[in-house]
Amino acid sequence: MFSGGFSDRKIVLLCEGNFGVIESKIASAFIRYNEEQCVAVINTEYAGQNVSDVLGWGHGIPIVATFAEAFKYEPDTLLIGVSVQGNSFPEAWRPFLVEAISNKLDIVAGLNFKLNDDAEFAALAQEHQVKLIDTKSVPQDIDLSRGRAENVDALIIHTVGTDCRVGKKTTALELTLEAKKRGIKANFGATGQTGIMISGTGICVDSVIVDFLGGATEKVVLDAAEGADWAVIEGQASIAHPAFAGGTMGMLYGAMPDALILCHHHNREKHYGYERPIPALQDLIEMYETVTKLSKPAKVVGVSLNTYPLSDEEAKVAIAELERELNLPVTDTVKFGAGKLVDALIDFEKNK
User: Which parts of the chain have pLDDT scores under 50?
Assistant: First the structure.
């Protein structure tokens, strides 16, 4: 479990319109790592069921259809558990938020649409003295990237992807937890809204002006590396993604990683939301390693394979096939843990 900035709260998650492992990735990840803080999920499609019936984890957390039902579990915070592309706000959610604010719940959101800029929400929040927490808000003191990550003592580990929504955040979290179990001082560096919600620290890099993207990533690295043996930095998107590759590149320059863990969703052939094919994994490994040579050379030392929704046995077959293909350690960190990747990182550090 991570004890982040919301660890002392009783949280109801708004997932109206989408709820599932992939469909509501904010909620599914938050529940996995902060289950004890979650009292209910709002989603009319699955109302009456248990969260574990849908996700496979979150046992005992009820799914309800209305805020009134959720309020019976005495939450003090409503967290929006579904991401929204672009700057829009789903108006179907407005009554839920109005009701929550009117009942003195703080609101946590990771949207490009800022709740604090909405006149109705801001006025209600002031009236009822509650906080609107926009995790995509960016600090004003971010500098340009200065190459300072090159000088940290910690091993910098960066999860990179073949696409969006393949498990970069989850892999980074699982690596951090496994390393800590072994006595390694590992810190997780969040670069997205969900990672910030889980850990309570970080910068949401997709809200940063592009000139300062490297500097924002550099700051996450410096903060995570302080007093640590390992700084495990959450990656975003993919170097080959038709829309978001620029962000991935900027992060690589700012992070200046030593080691990379490539993350991939088994059998995904096209980029999420696009018709463009995902390149072969060996080609992507070579691309990532080539790009890092322009700042500080990094090595892909293992692969995190998201095998959802395969069975454990099917997943083991897929993992073995990919290990033979790439000659690298491969695992599904959710099904089988991150031990194999931590072993590879320890070996890499010894021989570095």
Answer: 1
